[in-house]
Write the structure tokens for this entry.
Amino acid sequence: MKDYKGLRLGLCCIFRKEPIKFRQITAKALLQSHREEQLLLLSDICLHNVKSLQKSLYFVAENEIGAFRILSPLFPRLTHPQVGYQLEDLPDMEIIRNGLEEIRSFRQDHDIRLSFHPDQFNVLSSYRDEVIRNTIRELEYQGMLAELVGAEVINIHTGGVYGDKESALNRLQKNIENLSDPVRSRLTLENDDVSYSPKDLLPVCESIGMPMVYDVHHHRCLPDGLSESEVTERVVSLWRSLGREPYFHISSPRNGWGGRATRPHADYIDPADFPSCWTGMTATVDVEAKAKELAVIKIKETLKS
DNA sequence: GCATGTCAAGTTGTG
DNA sequence: CACAACTTGACATGC
């Protein structure tokens, strides 16, 4: 049984070199077939993706990577209004469920931290009922999956401001209260690079006991007067007060810090971008870099020396 | 084979 | 005002 003390690095969703692929399908493609055929196709893809997730965890364990972010469309189009489905509808449902259970126990035995990061369409601060409804449906799907595979975190961004941040944050809090327990207990808020900084989110998170995922790259794109070590300290005590391990994100800009286009992610992490106050800490750091597993392994080596 | 356009969904900032 | 960016890629189509 692996037990991570100190920094635990996380891999996000997919691989660059390692031959582990996830399959996809669009609603448009599905709509060309009848329901029975759709479900056969979807079953194939879901089964393939569950096997790929198993392989991902084997790779992660072998390379002493401590966390893995599961890509959102693991079960593609599950909540789509026209072609959506339930696990029970899939012909291979039993093998799929067994696969998910195997993932859950492997994760536990190897102390691998699993997370979800729902897409940008999930906005709990929206003033539109339809957006909220769709968001909740998607979050509930990810919550159900999180239960099945033993994932601990469902991390989202706050979303829009709509010209009035305070009202938006109030709507966010109200909508969070109405989530089911599997979702609410896993939900985390991440600071973004255009609207919500740690200074905006920390008071909310601290008041409702919601952990905050600290993305230091976003913080550098959207400075708020708080220093990185100040934010780190508050984020850490927030997670610890909930008895959980803190969660950070790191990435490097593809085009350097000088120009305007700092947002796109680079292939690797520049060690100089890694906050010095994080080293030696017991925490998880997801590595958001385009070279994926290669970037995680590389920064891991660098941090060791 | 390989290059290219398309994919459910929201919001913001840029050109 | 259209479009890219966001965590980004995979797939279908056409040459």
